[in-house]
Amino acid sequence: MKRCFKPCAVAMLLGLIAGCASAPLNFPREESVAIADTSSTRQAQEVAEWLDSRPDVDGFYPLSEGFDAFGARLALMSVAEVSIDAQYFLMKPDNAGLVFAAKLLAAADRGVRVRLLLDDIFTTVEDVDLAMLDAHPSIQVRIFNPLARKGLFALNYIGHFNLANRRMHNKTFVVDNQVAVVGGRNIAVEYYQLETTGEFVDFDMLSTGPIVRDVSSSRCR
Known about the structure:
By secondary structure, the chain is of the alpha/beta class. Helix content is 34%, strand content 17%.
């Protein structure tokens, strides 16, 4: 019994590693771009008033408090008319994530096109829940460099480290291609003063003007 212990342990480890491969990436992928003409939206009219109808000027408003940063996202989703484009390094199925997802669904139900891009490595929302969001005809969910969830998650790096180590740290939120929120906050309670045991000290900037189109056209790096 003692002699076969090591070979058995090695066999079990190899079995776990074999089950921990990267997720299949050879499915058809359709290119998607921001909706360019949103000049008839409420956001476009309000931005024009704020910037005194100057097309060459950008506007900025700091969101240093977590409550304000989360509230700004929720308020913008509530008035979105054409599109919501969001990309984040991580999203959790906590109160912040659930409220955020509910607002996305409510906007999609109004006919707003929603695009959500998440990095996979620290996103803890279950695949089935992301699939439910993606099943909505007005929502596109995409995962950056997905990793297989089979076996021990940490072992997914073995044999695929170059792929698994290439992550997407973008954190942008754009409504109607007119207003953007960019900064360091992801979608989880610890970023928005919703966590009583601790909080990340972070910062966001609400932006309007031509810079929003630059944000919308940015690619994952």
